[in-house]
Amino acid sequence: MNIPHSEEEKEEDFLEYLYMGWKSGTEIWPHQVKMHLELMDAELKRLERGLMESGYLRKRAENSGYRLTELGKVQGEECLLRHHNLTQFLQMTCGLEEEEAEENACRMEHVISGNVLQGVQEFLKYGETYDRVVRDVDLRYLYPEGRYFFCMSLYRMEERFPRRLAEESEWFLEMAELIVSDKESFFILHGKEIEKDCRLWYLDGEKWRMAKREQNDFRLPQSALTCTVSAASPLTECDGVLGITEGIQKPEEAQCRELNIHIW
Length: 264
Prior knowledge:
The protein is an alpha+beta fold. It has 2 domains: about 5-125, Orthogonal Bundle (Arc Repressor Mutant, subunit A); about 135-264, Sandwich (Immunoglobulin-like), CATH 2.60.40. Helix content is about 35%, strand content about 30%. It contains 6 helices and 12 strands. The chain has helices at about 5-25, 30-35, 40-55, 70-95, 100-110, 115-125; strands at about 130-135, 145-160, 165, 175-180, 185-190, 200-205, 205-210, 210-215, 215-220, 225-230, 235-245, 255-264. Strands 1, 2, 3, 4, 5, 6, 7, 8, 9, 10, 11 and 12 form a 12-stranded antiparallel sheet that branches. Strand 6 and strand 7 form a beta hairpin. Helix 1 (about 5-25) crosses helix 4 and helix 4 (about 70-95) crosses helix 5 (about 100-110). The radius of gyration is 28 Å and the shape is elongated. The two termini are about 40 Å apart. About 20% of the residues are buried.
């Protein structure tokens, strides 16, 4: 598959191919590199020059194949390892056949950061994953259509260690309801006897938005919450900042509360 490459990506593919040849004891010639990387003569010469200037490639004698320097072998091994790790990762996590995984690994290997590669390697070695924070999470991808109930708490913002429940916790049932349909997912906070003028606000990015109220219940869209998906536990914590006011004025700092919902 002919995928557009930058100059740096072509150099990495060149090194990877030469390293595979060196490792197998096979001498690699210019015409083989041209065919493998789909290069024109001018491109091949330019890449050769760049790799020699970087100290990866020895000057080639007229009647011999390419020879990597020791530095070139180290760099080539690194490129090949990255490619193999990504291929295995895609096969294991996405269920791809080897050929399709190889093609996608070719696209990915040049653009991922060192931290991403390290995470892939840790997964392949130990099956380890990491806690991750997900904003505007679409819970339709985690739950089938239906209604779900999870424990919720409201905390005071100004007291963190230890956290203290807000007085308004008593206004709501202890379980928040998650509604999942084919088009959307959202939470409902079920109130007890809440004053008619009471308004519930949620922080969406940096903007306050008023939650839709139906009798004593308040509806919160998924954008109101940030979820931390735990690697060690199926329990996921969803947090958001709420404001509680009388009337339609936006919340002041003293009226803000932290919402915490544990889903699993």
